[in-house]
Amino acid sequence: MSSLPTIVLVHGFWGGAAHWSKAIIELTKLGHTGLHAVEVPLTSLADDAERTRKMVRQIDGPVVLVGHSYGGAVITEAGDLPNVAGLVYIAAFAPDAGESPGGISQAKAPAAFPNIAPDSDGYLWIKPDKFHESFCQDLTADEALVMAVTQKAPLGSTFGDNITAPAWKKKPVWYQVSSEDRMIHPENQKMMSQRMKPRKIVELNASHASLASKPREVAALIDEAARSAA
């Protein structure tokens, strides 16, 4: 049985748990056997945080929560459980109390903001023909096509849901900045990461989809966090 903490991976907007596929392979190579990727509904921060808490409560022993994109807001809201030993943010939102992902983005809009469009039911989509250039410009056209077709749209109202009590004020934190991110402005990532005073900040020359385009580097940061929390 591994002495390492269990790693729980939380996806963000416009993707599901499978967005972590390459990072999962790299983490397994590094010796991590306790791996879970939660599938959150993207219907509200409360719903998404509660789904994450339910998974964490099923796990005996320490857990490292990892959030990509909006998943960072989810682990910020859900990460106060006693067995959560650390938080890792991958090109992610890390709002403070009273802040929302939408509010942070409006203050400094990312390059691809114009490529997001609502449907008649209130879900927000990245325009399929703009997905590659917006979300994952450093992946192949084929990979981007699959991501565009399988994108998981959030309810637009989720963008405005505020954090209540940010777990990063109580838990050890690690953060990866994507310098070529077109979905969360890199300057917003730097602002959020620096104010958390993380154990480590890694900046990668990567798109928003760094978990897929730089899986070794992303896995290395998660591995470092897990071993530190062991």
From TrEMBL:
Name of the protein described by the UniProt record: Hydrolase
GO MF terms held by the record: hydrolase activity
Ranges in coiled-coil conformation: none
SUPFAM superfamilies reported in the protein's UniProt record: alpha/beta-Hydrolases (SSF53474)
Keywords: Hydrolase
AB hydrolase-1 domain residues: 7-220
Hydrolase in keyword set: yes
Gene3D superfamilies: alpha/beta hydrolase (3.40.50.1820)
Organism, as annotated: Mesorhizobium hungaricum
